Amino acid sequence: MRALIQKVQHAKVVVEQQTTGEIQTGLLVFLGISKDDNFEIGKKLIEKLLKYRVFDDEQGKMGWNISQAQGSILLVSQFTLMARTQKGLRPDFGDAMPPQEAKVLYEQLIEYTKQQNIKVETGIFGADMKVHLINDGPVTFNLEVTN
């Protein structure tokens, strides 16, 4: 499972000219789910994400996690993160979890994240989404968790 995270001042997802999720200070999280992933792996990723220190503390260093920064999460499904790109000129999505299964796991992870007392907004799984953001820094990290 992969998460491309960006520290943002503002981010929103628009589907068919309707905003489906919007946050101010927080993390925009693009989530890629592989065919080998499961809920336990997802929990490990969410727990790492929530503890990851990318927000400025009182000394101006990356010392605070999202809770300490009183931030929110915008969680967006992103199967293209699972693409194999080493060979050829076209991405290979063979490692991505099939959409029906990935949607169930994505929704379980949304609920799990909400249970951690973090404000969570989302996109719409499988939709053509337009993501608007103001990256703060810019600060962008790729988190990956496997078995």
Describe this structure as you would to a colleague:
A motif (Gly-cisPro motif, important for rejection of L-amino acids) lies at residues 137-138. There is one protein chain. With 147 residues, this protein is an alpha/beta fold. The chain is built from 2 helices and 8 strands; from the N terminus they run βββαβββαββ. The chain is globular and about 45 Å long.
Concise overview:
With 147 residues, the chain is of the alpha/beta class. It is built from two helices and eight strands; from the N terminus they run βββαβββαββ.
Provide the fold topology.
Blueprint: E1 2-15, E2 18-23, E3 26-32, H1 39-51, E4 55-56, E5 62-64, E6 72-77, H2 99-114, E7 120-122, E8 130-144
Parallel strand pairs: 3-6, 6-7
Antiparallel strand pairs: 1-2, 1-3, 1-8, 4-5
Helix pairs in contact: 1-2
CATH superfamily: D-tyrosyl-tRNA(Tyr) deacylase
The class by helix and strand makeup works out as alpha/beta
- Tally of DSSP β-strands: 8
CATH topology: D-tyrosyl-trna(Tyr) Deacylase, Chain: A
CATH architecture: 3-Layer(bba) Sandwich
The portion of residues forming beta strands comes to: 35-45%
Along the chain, the helix and strand elements come as EEEHEEEHEE
Straight-line N-to-C gap: 9 Å
Tally the helices: what do you get? 2
| Count of discrete structural domains | 1
Low-confidence stretches: none
Task: State the name of the first-level CATH class.
Answer: Alpha Beta
Question: What percentage of residues falls in helices of 4 or more residues?
Answer: 10-25%
Rg on CA atoms, Å: 15 Å
Q: What is the approximate shape?
A: globular
Mean model confidence by pLDDT: 96
Task: Specify the biggest β-sheet.
Answer: 6 strands, mixed
